[in-house]
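hey m, so remember when u said the tokens were messed up on ur end? i reran from scratch. heres the input so u can diff it against urs
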Amino acid sequence: MAVMTDRRRRARPRIATAATAALAATSLLTLTGCGLFDDEAGGDSAGTSDGPLDVVASFYPMAFLAERIGGEHVSVSTLTGPGVEPHDLDISPQQTAQVADADVVVYLQGLQPAVDEAIAQSATGEIADVTGFTSLESHEEEAEGEGEHADEGNTHDDEHADEGNAHGDEHADEGHAAEDEHADEGHSHDDHGHSHDHDIDGLDPHIWLDPAKYGQLAMGVAAALTNADPDHMADFEANATELINELDALDAEFTEGLAEFEGDTFITTHSAFGYLAARYGLHEESITGLDPESEPSGARMRELREIAEADGVTTIFFETLVSDETARTLADDLGLQTAVLDPLEGITEESAGADYLEVMRANLAALQTALGG
């Protein structure tokens, strides 16, 4: 753990909101070549050039952002170890101490209750809650389907193609129009400059699986690092721009690679891919909903059988960090194949790549194969 200077310890903790809300409202596809930061980015923060920032990330997607954007100016530790299912994380006293001593904490509020509690009670540094950098959406109705899908048969194909294919202006307008409102409503400061007021119950937290939204998170994290260490703003800006360019290219690959499958249905273990499905015009059905540990009802399993048969589903997707038993049971009952679709909640030796970009490309290939590409 990096040793914090007295200057850092005396700094009044802040949460990156006002400056980053403006950044996050900028479209990923038009950002390249533009400056990320205005004069407020450094603000009254007490940055320093004495050693790397000590950054604590809640789980892998947050750590990836911090490492790529911070570069040599950060030392990143992750609360969720490899192979650990993030939703069920318990925080040890040592990890609580890490949170307390960190210069910057990067996390997704509402995904890991133990992390939320540790930050609320202990954090003293810059807090980057990424739910303030983009809009969250609800995909529950699409994921659960509660009989509506079976009644309508295949008529959902055109409907979901129209909804999800708002990849361009409509998707961006809906997502970005809520940025300032989300930041204003969701982040009220207490005595420590922390935010714990907004509630994501019923909203899908898996925002990192949409490359465009992930780019918005990158902008917010870059601003948070700059708040903590304004001396290295130029490096954070350059690193963030480079990453956003890569996410732009990834977005283009998904758009082209899935264009012929608009409206097609895929079945997953839990509802992790709602943002991805909405962005690229697909339709996700899940076995367990947003909670990967919940048990599906008999009615839900019967409904999924009907959906799979009606829509010509060939593959049931499972995950590396969650039991595949139910997915394999459903696949065996229907004579379907199984494959991995990775929600990127953690990287292990079993992952189909070494980092976010590689695993996302493996996910693209898996979807193309399952959908008949």
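this time it looks ok to me. Residues 233-258 form the longest helix (26 residues). if urs says something different then somethings off w ur setup not the seq
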